[in-house]
Amino acid sequence: MTLDERINAFERLGNVLNANDKIPEEFFTDALSTALQNFENCIQNEYIHHSWFIPEFIRKAVEGIRGMLEGAKLRRWLAAYPALMQKTTSKRVGVIIAGNIPMVGFHDFLCVLMAGDVFIGKLSSNDKHLLPLLAEVLCVLEPRFKNYILFTEGKLEQIDEIIATGSNNSARYFDYYFAKYPSIIRKHCNSVAILDGTESETELAALVDDICLYFGLGCRSISKVYVPENYDFTPLFVLLDAYKPLFSMHNAFLNNLEYQKTVHLINRIPFLDQGIMMFKEHHSIASAIGIVHYEYYKDIEDVWQSLALQSEVIQCIESRQARGEVGLCFGQSQFPEVWDYANKIDTLTFLIENSKESI
User: Fold this and answer.
1) Mean pLDDT for the stretch of residues 182-207
2) Cβ neighbours of residue 18 under 8 Å, at least 6 residues apart?
3) How much is the pTM?
């Protein structure tokens, strides 16, 4: 397949995912209807296999994928890689997929296939249904992709390169086990927000989404907020109530939240109890499920300088004012653009620069 054919196939995938239960007439086939229905059934029932993957949040993940697959965005993204047009060899790329949020490995899936390589995905036991079913939809739209996609729950064998994402502990294992392969090994990151106290209700509502989506389990979930001294949390806490109906029905989240409250109370650790979320003053960027850390500042420039020193462990920074290319608007962290790379490592450049050997 040419690069244009691969782009067109993924653009069609975005179109059928955006069909609002009606497949565009130009794409309709019985096979596509069946593949989409299988994917929809999985969205509705995946919580049975993994309780944190509720339909509401899986649909948010699909929404993010649709946004990446707009034709104009795909072409703008890939235009920055002219070497793709000259790439004639294919490699077998092993991809170890994390299981913290639904279809978190989609961007690697997209990058490997856009590079013309073979995607060999090792699935997490927490998320072993959704991406394969989405790949089936893609293969109905472009059957030639069938020879470029393989999923496994076993060992990765006969690979040329490796892309692996996991915890800091698993990253050390990956570094050792895959030492002989060209690799991208991603460690865990967190995301933060810098507030100045003048945020509008709309901005705070968007921040609430970035805190609560996927129960805060993603690297792009806001785990810490920096606030000016004497900051009033009341408006933010009121808006967080929007998630109360959803979170109050989730036993795993509620049990975890009750445990955290008990531990903090027994150990006399101060915290603010919003109801469905705890806020604790703490210097660490990483926080436990159900907890958002906060830190007061006097000078916002001190915050930016501190975060610059921690850039390797920060995925996103949300703020009303960016610093150069650093800083997102509220509501953007959970919906990355197709050119936004996890851990700021350019996956496509890695795939292109290591493309001398053919399978």
Assistant:
1) 95
2) 66
3) 0.94
The residue-averaged pLDDT of 192-220 equals 96
What would the two tokens of residue 278 be? 């705890």
- pLDDT score of 222 more than 70: yes
Q: Any idea which residue has 């810098």 for tokens? A: 194
Secondary structure string (H, E, C) spanning the chain: CCHHHHHHHHHHHHHHHCCCCCCCHHHCCHHHHHHHHHHHHHHHHHHHCCCCCCHHHHHHHHHHHHHHCCHHHHHHHHCCCCHHHHCCCCCEEEEECCCCCCCCCHHHHHHHHHCCCEEEEECCCCCCCHHHHHHHHHHHHCHHHHHHEEEECCCCCCCCEEEEECCHHHHHHHHHHCCCCCEEEECCCEEEEECCCCCCHHHHHHHHHHHHHHHHCCCCCEEEEEEECCCCCHHHHHHHHHHHHHHCCCHHHHHHHHHHHHHHHHCCCCCEECCCCEEEECCCCCCCCCEEEEEEECCHHHHHHHHHCCHHHEEEEEECCCECCECECCCCCCCCCCCCCHHHCCHHHHHHHCCCCCC
Report whether pLDDT(27) > 80.
no
Q: What's the pLDDT at 20?
A: 62
